[in-house]
Amino acid sequence: MVGKRLLVTPRFGLARVLSKRGLCSRTEAQRLIRAGLVRLDGRVIDDPEFPVRDVHAARIDIENSRAVAATPRYLMLNKPRGLVTTTRDEQGRDTVYRCFEGAQLGWIAPVGRLDKASEGLLLFTNAPAWAAQITDPANGPDKTYHVQVDAIPDAPVLAAMQAGVVEGGEFLRAKSVLLLRAGEKHAWLEIVLDEGRNRQIRRLLTALNLNVLRLVRVAIGPLALGDLPKGQWRELSVQEVAVLGGDD
Known about the structure:
This protein is an alpha+beta fold.
């Protein structure tokens, strides 16, 4: 006699459920829960990891208001140079959220990041699972950058970028490198990455004695920055959402 297989419904911690519903970041959810501001089916819960049996049907109230799942949002921004990719900055620097002032978008979070000196395509969403697909180091889409450097790299240097170097204990490499154009002293390169490491391009080029003058992300997978003006944003189409990571 073959025993029956029991179907186990996965449970998620309460903080993760708030994040999955697109209401806030998991960090903010943890803060609200620990402050006693969250009720689950009428009961105050102060443990962010409290298991929720029915993620979709559970009634959740935040500060006595029903927490209805937010409409999924998927945005792209042409990030200007000089803004930091964070919700708030301890040093008081301008953040990328300045570009959304007055838009009343609710909670959205950046999908990956660009450092302060970098520019170009930056995605935002309130759908954590979709974001995780894009930032997945193994299966996420390639990222394409146009990079201005302070010299004219020769063929061996371009080959070394793809062969890789060890810097700071990490192996850094580019999936592909193309010399776009060169002047007397400067050159523009197209660099494609298939993994994401902190300041990867800058560190890789510095190790090869090249200084970055400008760094612009121009595409994530098939999604191109196009002619979106600097500092402006737009919603992604249904097709763009699907081709990047599927609709969460």
